[in-house]
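Backbone geometry:

***
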Amino acid sequence: MPRLSAVSGRILIVDDDERQRSALAAMLSDCDFDTQVAADGQEALERLACFSPDVIVADLVMPRMDGFELLRHLKEQGDLTPAIALTGFGSMEKALSAVHDLNAFWFLEKPVEPRAFKILLERAVRHKRSLQKTAQLKRDLSFRGVLGDMVGTSPAMQQIFSLIRQVAPTSAPVLIRGESGTGKELVAREIHKCSPRGDGPFVAINAAALPETLVESELFGHEKGAFTGAMERSAGCFEQAHGGTLFLDEIGEMPSSTQPKLLRVLEDLRVRRLGGKHEIAVDARVLAATSQELGTHLREELYYRLSVFQIVIPPLREHKEDIPQIADVMLENLNKKHGTRVTGVDAGVLALFHRYDWPGNVRELRNILEHAAIVAGDGSIELTDLPSPALGLSPGPYARPSHGDHDAIVLEPGQPLMKLEDAYIKLTLQHVHGNRKLAAGMLGISLRTLQNRIAALREETSAVSPGP
């Protein structure tokens, strides 16, 4: 007969029949198991206060507290210790119920066959070890600089991870602040994933990207015929996020007329669709984000309601030591997306990245790496793989003028601030090949603000241009 593999572990046997629990313990006398016994579920819970088993073996029918109640209690407490249910002849339905409904590892019929008992115990112990290893790995990864899709071993990023772990289990509103491109939505998604609502919906809305006339419809929903074009009933973001999380990005762009209505929903947890007659109860945790100072943009009471807990994300220029690790994770994802086989970033490229101030933050880094990964295809990313504007990356936030470059920014005392801002907008637009959305993100302003500045620039140009 082949010898069973040696697996050690701690076993708690729970059975009201003294002869039965003694017999089960005796079966394990030649194995490397630390075995303790209990007469019923109540005594088992008392044992668990000072004994941490790898497997619980429990009879389903017992006085005081039976096996079902014991398993139910363990499930409610989030205890993942594998449990083997013992059942009498003809009670297969009860045993399957314990496995299916109460997360028992498996079941055995009495009388228990010793070899089957030992094999099942070994499998259950290995399962417990696997659960422990997975949990430890998750803890280690978070402390070593990885939290979900976020990366960073710098003190600044470790502080962000710590704040996420603190606030995620609560229901408190969170205000996430940081320059555009720093990853505010990533932080919001990690808070959601790590929260008790993690299995619920995550709904994101960008206040800056919506016309003012549609903001309330998007937030609160509308009934058919509520306004011109409302051809059917539509649930708003609060309803869609019921049981989960609603992320309000660029909250500072929220129209002032909508803010009192938003505040009321946050306080009452009830919404009324546009054109509706009845209020609807909603259960959605609200996370908000902004890339600007909110002092003059939000009503004071709404600001305080949203900022019960604040997380400020540092710009990439303040934690450049994280760039190599961030780049590795980004390239791994880009390889999956584009079918490339890029293995890393050349030392010369990393040196260039460390000299740059990254006005577009992590988003800009990803865009540059995506271009470079497609060009390189495989191997390491080199300077020649970078997009051409990136080759002129400079140590500071302003470009150095090159020969014949009349639009470059030159820092000289006494220049009007508006002129410098206009020149920087032009330079950024050139850098992203005219992509206004990306330029707005890099500049830390809304797309609407950028478009207004471009229109103003055109008017100024027209005003000074000589007539035909």
About this structure: The CA atoms of residues 176 and 289 lie 4 Å apart.
